[in-house]
């Protein structure tokens, strides 16, 4: 049986072959122009899926890197502000130490008071610091609310909240980008423990510190702060005669808790301090007090408090700045301010260290993202980018094949049976 191929069929096959070769050449030219081997899913379906996955991961990394940039800006703002607070507290402490100097003239103390007011105002500005977007960094989640404002009585009220703001810098990594102002400025650990001293000058009608007293509270703690009450401690030095008739001086103390006298004229041991536990109550709290610089006749009140407000402490220094240098209560209050400032400085240093630790974590995460981004780009390039050497060789071969097909088509097109009749 003879298979016959019509002229039209042959012409159609040759035309299709030319178009296919021309298409291959056009595709190679397009790849050389774009530098990409895979531009559509049809170019390489398997590689196209992988490339799309790489692109999604790179987009996610870009989002995380943007979050890292924002987090770093906020953290740097906080770190700078806290460093400024540390400097402010250090300068304030030096001024208060100068005020304790009894040789200062009244006009000098007035000048120191003015400087303390300026330092307090500077501290307020730092507490109301903003980031590059204008958000208050120490206001918790109330970032558009000014956290600290001065009340009519001179106290500083906190208007933010106690919440933390976070930034997601990786799939399962969130970092703090804010510190609540109350945690930073109004909840500073009390350097004495669980009680704060309240000093007053002794008068004919009121207990307090005697002239020349240097009474200083070293520590005041309780094993159950929830049940803590106001404490008053009084000291009195008496003559004690031993069995041999020798007379010695002994410092005694009386203890009043919650308005009730619980200890009267007990011997005070400077090394052991005061330790009290209510014998009438099972499992009662243990109270431990330690003092220094006691003078006979001194009396001190202790109020329950585990934290301090650094603004209140500085205001106390301002209030006592111009009190007479002969007032032992004024000097004791200033000494208490110094203790508060020391505690505040340590607290700020701890908070600054925490911010620094977060910044290091953010930097490490950024390095990981950059490394992973480089790896993904290399992998994507290996699948997507064009091998120019191979592409040029392919183009030359395709051009030669196309030219050969064109020549064959031209010759075949001229064939006819009429040429043999």
Write up this protein:
By secondary structure, this protein is α+β, with helices and mostly antiparallel strands. It folds into 2 domains: 232 residues, f41 fragment of flagellin, N-terminal domain, CATH 1.20.1330.10; 110 residues, no CATH class. The chain contains 7 helices and 14 strands. The strands form 5 sheets. It has a 5-stranded antiparallel sheet, with no helix packed on it. A 3-stranded antiparallel sheet has the order 7-12-11. The longest helix is centred in the last third of the chain and has 57 residues. The protein starts with 6 loop residues before the first helix and ends in an 8-residue tail after the last helix.
How many separate structural domains? 2
CATH class of the largest domain: Mainly Alpha
Q: What is the overall shape? A: elongated
Determine the fraction of residues in helical runs and give it as a percent range.
40-55%
**How are the strands of the biggest sheet laid out side by side?**
6-13-8-9-10
CATH architecture classification name of the largest domain: Up-down Bundle
Please summarize the sheet with the most strands: 5 strands, antiparallel
Q: Calculate the mean pLDDT score and round it.
A: 84
Classify the beta-strand content into a percent band: 15-25%
Q: Superfamily at the CATH H level of the largest domain?
A: f41 fragment of flagellin, N-terminal domain
